[in-house]
Amino acid sequence: MSKPVVLRLGGVKYAQKAWEELGKIAQVVTVDPSTTRAQFLKQCQDPESPISKTQIITRNVQSLKQTGRFDAELAKALPASVVAVCHNGAGYDQIDPAPLIERKVQISNVPELVNNSTADTHVFLMLGALRNFEHGRRLMYEGQWPSHPTAAGAPVGHDPEGKVVGVLGLGGIGGAIVERLKPFGFKKFIYHNRNKLPSDLENGCEYVSFDELLSQSDVISINIPLNPKTRHIINKEAIEKMKDGVVIVNTARGAVIDEAALIEALKSGKVRSAGFDVYEHEPQVPQELLDLPNAIGVPHMGTHSVETIQKMEEFVVENVRNIINTGKVLTPIPELKGETWIEDAKPLV
User: Which InterPro entries does this one have (predicted)?
Assistant: First the structure.
């Protein structure tokens, strides 16, 4: 019996051993890094290409350069043999689920392994934004400290004590952030999800409406996925409902914030400071934002650690193994909930 064909899109940094082991039960094929989307779509339909026999696809964010978005056009071009797409990441906004689900293709992500690393990054940005650390760092690097002995002239910051943190999206990452923030002495934590969580999952947070979260929070912690409903959920109107001098931290997806509106709010002082790991049009970041001393940012480093990258890559391989052995992905995305056809999926061996 021939081995199941697994198409690996994107490179592997630390999980080479896991892929070597997978190679014992599957035929792993790849695409040349110079491949364009047009070439990839053609290879999917070329019977002479091993890609046309693909049953499982794994992908990472970097593979966007070879394939472009997993949209309706790409879903239509995929070989009929494809049964699953395994994405390496918690967020999967590079994938349009509907056309793949219509073709009865399962989609998986890596939802939990990113929690701790992303939460660590979030806390770093939040404390930095509260205390104006970025502003002070810039002034020091500019040589301002000798002439401004107190903190090089940076504005005085704020301690966490007595502040209300509004968590927009109390899922795995949001919960990990709350756990890390509790020892710092914040006054209380409120949250808003689409639906109120069971009390045992609220982690001591109080459920409020979206507008209440905006109006009551001293610090807003953003941890929601990007989709058509959440795009620009933090816009000019939302910012106007916030407290004067609010702090905003985003390690989710850049486009959940209207970046232009936030820049104006940072310049006016309506938003006192902000922390970013993600940006609306990354890797392009507006120079206007980069120039603001009350914005502390890193270039999408939330999961940029050896340990987390390795765990994520290895988990993608586990998803592939489970499909081969059972016909089902381990971590289906929420859009697959209620799709009864998955129950009929058969092992590939």
Answer: D-isomer_2-hydroxyacid_DH, D-isomer_2_OHA_DH_cat_dom, D-isomer_DH_CS, D-isomer_DH_CS1, D-isomer_DH_NAD-bd, NAD(P)-bd_dom_sf
pLDDT of 186 reads 97
DSSP 46-86: -TTSGGGG-SEEEE-GGGHHHH--B-HHHHHHS-TT--EEE
Rounded CA gap, 227 and 224, in Å?
9
**Strand 56-59 relative to strand 5-8, pairing:** parallel
**Residues with catalytic annotation?**
253, 282, 300
Which residues is 295 bridged to in the sheet?
Answer: 274
**Is 161 in contact with 186 (CB distance < 8 Å)?**
yes
Maximum Cα–Cα distance for the chain, whole Å? 77
Q: What string of DSSP letters covers 39-53?
A: HHHHHHH-TTSGGGG
Per-residue pLDDT tens digits for 192-250: 999 999 999 999 999 999 999 999 999 999 999 999 999 999 999 999 999 999 999 99
Determine the pLDDT at residue 169: 97
CB atoms within 10 A of CB 323: 25
| Dist. CA 97–CA 35, nearest whole Å | 23
Yes or no: say if 108 and 85 are a contact pair by the CB < 8 Å rule.
Answer: yes
The three-class DSSP label of residue 246 is strand
Determine the pLDDT at residue 1. 60
In 3D space, the residue among 44, 58, 24 whose CA is nearest the CA of residue 331 turns out to be: 58
Angle, helices 115-131/306-326, rounded to nearest 10 degrees: 150
Judge contact between 103 and 158, C-beta under 8 A: no
